[in-house]
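Encoded backbone
================
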Amino acid sequence: QLSGAASQSNAHCFSATISACERCKQWQQALQLLSDMHRCAVQPNVPCCNAALSACAKSGQWQMALSLLKSMPNIQLVPNDISYNVAISACSDSEEWEHVMELIRAMVESGMSDFLMGSYDHIDQ
């Protein structure tokens, strides 16, 4: 159990560092840290991915945010409402309305429509 606790502690350290990258809009470093977690045998968690998603979004890297969101299931992580809302925000800020609608549909299909943040009434369906 000690190794599990150590791994969880390491995940928290990575998460805090990725969050610092997010605040400084250092999206490349955030993604590199996420990649480094695999090399260090530390399982990434949803908060780590969300922080990296946010770093991409805040830096205008909507394509990277979408790519990361879509890759989460490949590492056995299920995106949550925060994951989707960050990706929606990234696409919305870049006026990528098709992707916004795709993400909203995915949230609705996943039963997360109650967690949609902001108002998307201005988007034509």
Observations:
- Residues 2-23 form the longest helix (22 residues).
- Residues 119-125 have pLDDT under 50 and may be disordered.
- The helical segments are 2-23, 27-39, 46-58, 62-71, 81-93, 97-109.
- The chain is about 65% helix and 0% strand.
